[in-house]
Amino acid sequence: MSVGATASGMSGDPYKLGYSHHGHLEPGTDEATGHGEGGPASKRIVVAYGFWIFLLSDIIMFSAFFASYAVLSGATAGGPTGRELFDLPRVAIQTLCLLTSSFACGLAAIATRLRNHLWTQIGLLVTGLLGVVFLALEFQEFTTMIAQGAGPSRSAFLSSFFALVGCHGLHVTAGLLWLGTMMAQVFVKGFQPPILRRLMCFSLFWHALDIIWVALFSVVYLIGAYS
Amino acid sequence: MNASSNTRDDQRDLAPGDELITDGDVASGLLGYVIGFVLALGLTACSFYVAGSDLIWKPGIPTGLIVLAVAQMGVHLVFFLHITTSPDSTNNVLALAFGVLIVVLVIGGSLWIMAHLDHNMMPMDKLMEMQR
Predict the structure, then answer these.
(1) Residue B110 touches partner A, C-beta closer than 8 Å
(2) Average pLDDT over residues A136-161
(3) Mapped to the 3 state alphabet, what secondary structure does chain A carry?
């Protein structure tokens, strides 16, 4: 069995479980599979898997914030409720920004796969600009609420709201800093394997933030504004 | 390993975010993102519409919104993060399953316990009277 035949084995039955797409492997005849035969998985796979574990732990941290919000969402202490505070058109624009940003990040990943510098940079730039718009809208929301006297110290509901939404906002801010660094690194160093791994981790991070925002706008804003 | 294979050293193990396509196959990669984007936009629009309308029974709206949110998270996982059921991404799926288990335990458990506490606690005004 040649290595070439193994690489084209993708077109075979992808659902065939086991160590190889060609039935049993003879030890030492094949490249590394990461399935326990032929040595460990490649660095790219290991890095991405480790980062995936980090993202899941981050999501678990968010679940604690969600739990505290869900428990405290009724504890308004006589202060303003979500129904009075939330501005749904702005949330809709924020959602659109983050969704499109995630899409642009995916397009940048495709351009990276093609080793196209220009379109990678354009994709990352659009990703970043939409992220900035999202953050600006969130900042505007927070300042408006605090100016109305509905700051995080007003009630337990507002404390948990600012903790949850603010934590997501901090993640987006960190993501934007990372994005700027990646654009500079791609510009200076080109598509070297370490840069490619970092780009992959960044796009995973950005898509994961979008998933958390889906839970946020549904649970916090939509349910909060209408119930 | 030759130098050109530095992105996909191994064709049979998938990193999260990697797709089960060959490097040249851009059109299908693009199509995946477009399908995901359209589905996500559609589900978002549904959520915003359902929340403000009387299309469904009013007390059922929160449940409906959560169902739509879970559906959209699934769309994001499959089309953007490329976490699929293919045997090559078993590790990723198992890690995700464990993450989901913990999330369900944390959120469900908190709501359950706190609801019971609320139920068993004396109303606050009576508690104040007792302390006087």
Answers:
(1) yes
(2) 94
(3) CCHHHHHHHHHCCCCCCCCCECECCCCCCCCCCCCCCCCCCCHHHHHHHHHHHHHHHHHHHHHHHHHHHHHHCCCCCCCCCHHHHCCHHHHHHHHHHHHHHHHHHHHHHHHHHCCCHHHHHHHHHHHHHHHHHHHHHHHHHHHHHHHCCCCCCCCHHHHHHHHHHHHHHHHHHHHHHHHHHHHHHHHHHCCCHHHHHHHHHHHHHHHHHHHHHHHHHHHHHHHHHHC
